[in-house]
Structure of Phenylalanine--tRNA ligase alpha subunit:
Amino acid sequence: MKLPDAQVAVLETASADDAQTIDAIANATDHKPETITGAAFDLEEQGLVAVESATEDGVELTDEAHRYLDEGLPEVRLYEAALALDADESPVQMGRAIGESGLDGQAVDIALSNYARKGYGSIDSGEITADADADPDSDPEATALAALDRGDADVDDDTLDRLDSRGLVELTERTVRSVRLTDEGVTALMEGVEAAESVGQLTPELLTSGEWRDVEFSEYNVEADAAEVGGGKEHILRQTANRVKDVLVGMGFEEMEGPHVDADFWINDCLFMPQDHPARTHWDRFAMDQPREIDELPADLVDRVEDAHRNGVGPDGDGYHSPWDEDFARALALRGHTTSLSTRYLSGEQVGELEPPQRYFSVEKVYRNDTLDPTHLLEFFQIEGWVMAEDLSVRDLMGTFEEFYAQFGITDLEYKPHYNPYTEPSFELFGTHPETGELIEVGNSGIFREEMLAPLGVEDADVMAWGLSLERLLMLIYGFEDIRDVHGTLCDLELLRDTEVMY
């Protein structure tokens, strides 16, 4: 019987008594494992071998775990430092213990979160104690890391789960295939098999020389299992952002561009946001440390904006009568909304003076010091837009939303009156989540106030504007219940790979 070389190698190496793994056969025959796998499936189809599959669990140490093997677990290092400072006799300042341990950065937080849990001592009111009876040499997690490093996988499940939650191990799972000779395979070997000269791949040399006419090509088993390859693809959030851009351009809008780090003047002051507004404190914004302030601001515009804040606009205007400081206006921060782009464009600073009618939009990241939850992130994408024209009304604004969201199959928008310092009237938009039935806030909008527009030089037109959440649009389209599943360090990669793109 003539067979391809790889198939002969499998038959001659395999046994009828003991199953041989693909890797073992590959090592014994100097063939690649994938070549042996293909040959084994071909032989199985002919009834000469049986291919068995089993799942094998594995554990791999991370780089952080290897570092701890060399330096010690952070909580153990903190305990040893506390002992050196006699914290087993009386409490010592935690700062002294941390300094003695040599820990810094995230390692400090890790040490503090595990110290008391493992019974090494207590931490209270900035002081630390050490339990003299604690035994760091028998620390179960340190012991388990050392065992895994030696190749000993006999670690109890609870400890393994703890190491996994700390990111010190990666739990792996792979399919191991083994080959066993069948009776027909044994018979074929006894009758004799020899390697046939065959070609498994068509090459440029075979084509140019003409040898392809005379060679025998190996048959391909198109039904054989192949290794799964997770190729890269465009993130679904980026796909949706591009779709939003296409829709808005189709509605006649032009795209805005501008800095992610900007002066508070453009981010808030130009929006008629008082400088003592709670949202402008360091608790809600990410201020820059270096550089701290912008180099240049248009002096005449600064004067007009300051006057609007202090005195209002028009004969009946009444400003905030609150402190206004140009140094604060110059302070740099990560933008909390992309309306900073709108103020730059409306003032003429970005692209020159604009005459109505105008339509502009952006789909860009913004940054807020929010609490993380299923609908809030520290950074997210905002769909900013505005229209400048004469005699605009709330009906025009609602009609724009109805047309925009209909492009994504969303037709059940609801509106609620709202207050913004920079728009009047103002309202929020809500859509119904397709899975939970909850109303999800998807944006904020309104007609820009005269106190905002007049200093920017917009006097003979109305401007309606909005800021919509791209991530929440994604939730309404696909039914995601947690933004963190698709965006950030905890995102579900399998969900992103398998989600079908919708338009």
The chain is about 35% helix and 20% strand. Residues 236-250 form the longest helix (15 residues). The chain has a mean pLDDT of 88.
